[in-house]
Structure formats: structure tokens, C-alpha cells
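Quarterly update, task 2.4: 2-phosphoglycolic acid-bound model.
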Amino acid sequence: MKKKLIAGNWKMNGSLAANERLLRAILAELGQPACQVAVAVPSAYLAQCQALLAGSVIDLAAQDVSAQEGGAFTGEISAVMLKDFAVRYAIVGHSERRQYHGESDETVALKAQRALSSGITPIVCVGETLAEREAGRTDEVVKRQLAAVIHANGHCVSEIVVAYEPVWAIGTGKTASPEQAQQVHAVLRAQLKAASSSADRIKLLYGGSMNATNAASLLAQPDIDGGLIGGAALKAPDFLTIIATAA
Ligand code: PGA
């Protein structure tokens, strides 16, 4: 059985003191979870969180990675640099990056490529806006976003994680219903199956206002293999409840 993955996305939240409090509170109660667990922390805190998580079952993740290999790219952080901090996953193509930083499907595909070539698993985010959903374009949009990554990463596509995050559900308290989420996950699974014989082992996460209350019904869906959690990952009891749900 494929283990589920519960990944926290801290976004631009935290401080040295708050990170330590949060991780210590989670580690104190975590025990041996039945699922895999990761936290995507702001890059300024990678070293701190690497030290706090050393020897624990929680993997370290980055929230982004540069599409460039290295050199004159002020402010960018390369996959090789992330590897120095034992980063296991890097989120790529989060809707906040696509929306506020103009990241195209091609840029996201390149970022996934850089991560994979450094041995980091990209968590590739796809998702439609409310306008796109209302126009009946959900499947077309998520398939286009995923196709760019599959196209650029053909032979190692089975090494990626995909996160379906409907933009209208992120940070809004509005969650996709388990049926709505499963429907899109099934579309993505079919697309991955057409591209890879190992598609069954690719984890498909749901993200968008997943919390301690709705996690169980979302995670019970056949093609939902875990969650990418924003707000609820900043509260130790909520994050722990979601992890416990993902057995
Ligand atoms: P949210 O964020 O859980 O706060 O909606 C999820 C995400 O953006 O990854």
C-alpha cells in the first residue's frame, strides 16, 4: 500500500521562535505516523528546521526552487543549494507563484526538472481559478498545467508528486467537496497513467483549506493520496489530527 503524504506549506509565516515552538510541539506528539510527513518552510529557515528535524520522521521541503542551475540570478535559490540542507521535496508551481510572480507552465516544468536532477522530489501544484471552474474549464486547465511537466520530465515523471489545489479553495475556508476533488484527481491519474507505467505510485495530494475537520472525508477518496496543508499546518494540534487521519 502506498503511504499517504501530509505536507505542511508554511508560506511566508514563522520566525526563529515560532518555528521552534511549532516543530517541538509537533514532534512531541507525533510518534510513528502511518503516513509520510513533510514541512515546506521559508528558505531563510531551512538550516534551523533541518537542525530541529534531524533524526525525526519529518522531511524538510522548500516552497520553491529556481528554474536556473546557478550564477547571476539575484535572489534565486538553486536545487543544489536546497540539497545542502537535506531538502527532500520542493513545491513548484504553487498558484501564489503562478499568480503573483507570473510563473508559466514552462517555468514550472523547468523547476521540476531542476529539482529532479538534484534528487529532490517536486510537488507540482495544479489548479483552476473560480472563473475557470465556472466556465467548465477545470479539466482542461489542470491537464495543461500537468502536461507541461510531463512533457519536460518524461522519463522521471513517476518521481514527482502532484498537488491539486483549486485556487478558489486556497486560504478561503472553501474546500472542494470530496467528490469534486476526487473527480479532478481521477482526471490527473488517467493523464499520468497515459504517460507512465508507474503512475499508480505517484502521489496525488489535495490542497485548499484542508483542515482537521474535513481531512478524513477528502483522504478517503480513492485517488487522494495525501494533503498539502497551508493554514492548518501552522497549528500543531490541527496538523497532528490531519496526520493521524491519514493512516
Ligand atoms: P490552505 O493553503 O490550506 O491555507 O488553503 C493550501 C496551500 O496553498 O498549499
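Highlight for this quarter: The CA atoms of residues 124 and 162 lie 5 Å apart.
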